[in-house]
Design a protein that fits this description.
It is a single chain. This protein has about 300 residues and is mainly β. About 0% of the residues lie in helices and about 40% in strands. The strands form 3 sheets. Strands 1, 2, 3, 4, 5, 6, 7, 12, 13 and 14 form a 10-stranded antiparallel sheet that branches. Strands 8-11 form a two-stranded antiparallel ribbon. The chain has a two-stranded antiparallel ribbon with strand order 9-10. Strand 1 and strand 2 form a beta hairpin.
Length: about 300
Amino acid sequence: REVPGGILFNIGYQGTKTTKITVGRNINFPGPHPTIPAAQRRLNPKWNAINRGGDAGANANYNALTVRAEKRYSQGLTFLASYTWSHNIDQATESLDTNFQIIANPYDLRNERGNSNLDHRHMFLSSVTYELPFGRGKTIGASWNRAVDAFLGGWQAGGILTLRSGFPFDVSYPGDPQNTGTTNRGNRVGAGTVSNPTIDKWFDELAFVQSAPGVYGNAGRNLLFGPGTRNLDSSLAKRFSGLREGHYSQLRFEAFNLSNTPKFGQPNATLRQPNTATINRADEPRRIQIGLKYVF
């Protein structure tokens, strides 16, 4: 639909279903046991883990509501804004992007069904470019001489705003209480979230306890979510007339992560450690650059 102001508005649904995702499995897996170590119960005792990487046995699905607003260039303004509310669910990440021990039970992928490693529940992205209405040929200053126009005319501003919820992450219990040699997630006895997460305590580790010996824990895969992203890239440019017709030069000032808002990494999700639930990684800080180009 086109709404007033020459803005195009679009709303839609996207959905995909994926089958036979290749996943790595240990086919020499002995299963859990309360006392006998896993190494002594392998199906083929002569071998350690026998990892088969091309087993096409996992499934995935993706569903999303998409909203988009777009204004094509007119009166010096153009922008595109989009919002996606989605849920990406799978049973495993393809083996090129994970290791063989991330699956708790290689013989039952149904219990691995959970939030995908790539699941972004909310995503908003907007880009805008605006030519300020000052200068020769513009609404204000159409009769300016070249000297005045050289300072006040030809300005252009722009920016890209990204707002995104965080990726999910998997918790793991130290040791091997289920006695399988694979990932141990423990039992979930609470939500695991906190009302005001900080980098010193992103989640409640006491919501997870050790499972009984020789028993798979009930905690699922990728239960909790890490920090989201808030980022604004901006630019301010000044255009100058060139030496010949059709030529011009442009001086650009660009700032990436203008507000210097930290983009934190995932928390330490190994339970019962001194730094459990803390975050000690962040992406790059604000970066500023200035450039000059000549177009002909």
